[in-house]
Design goal:
Structural class: mainly alpha
Oligomer: single chain
Strand content: under 5%
Number of helices: 6
Largest sheet: none
CATH superfamily: YidB-like
CATH class: Mainly Alpha
CATH topology: Arc Repressor Mutant, subunit A
Helix content: over 70%
Number of strands: 0
Distance between the termini: 29 Å
Number of domains: 1
Low-confidence stretches: none
């Protein structure tokens, strides 16, 4: 999967749902979701001007609601394990690129 395709899925599916759930910006929703799933340190590293800590596909599968991971997988033409692997690989850089000032954008 290309980074552009991953970004499209993040923006149009995963982030949009999480933002609606939390009623905040999509990036903040992702950080909150990671925090709620015990990955706050990792998510904070993606926002801050520090090295991005990795997450595993298993962690992504544990944090995202199963139906949302399935929708992401369907959108990408992957099975859920492949989608979790792809999201785990792309998510840190995706958030990092969108927070160049080291903080979440305000809605």
């Amino acid at each position: 999967m290309t980074s552009a395709r991953a970004a499209e899925v993040f923006d149009n599916l995963v982030f949009a749902h999480l933002a609606t759930y939390y009623d905040v910006s999509s990036l903040e929703a992702v950080v909150r979701t990671m925090e709620a799933g015990g990955l706050g340190t990792e998510a904070a590293s993606w926002v801050r001007d520090t090295a991005n800590l990795p997450v595993t596909p298993e962690q992504i599968a544990d944090v995202l609601p199963p139906w949302l991971l399935r929708k992401a997988a369907d959108s990408l033409g992957l099975d859920t394990q492949e989608a979790a692997r792809s999201l785990a690989a792309e998510l840190p850089g995706y958030v990092d690129e969108r927070t160049p000032l080291g903080e979440l954008p305000r809605p």
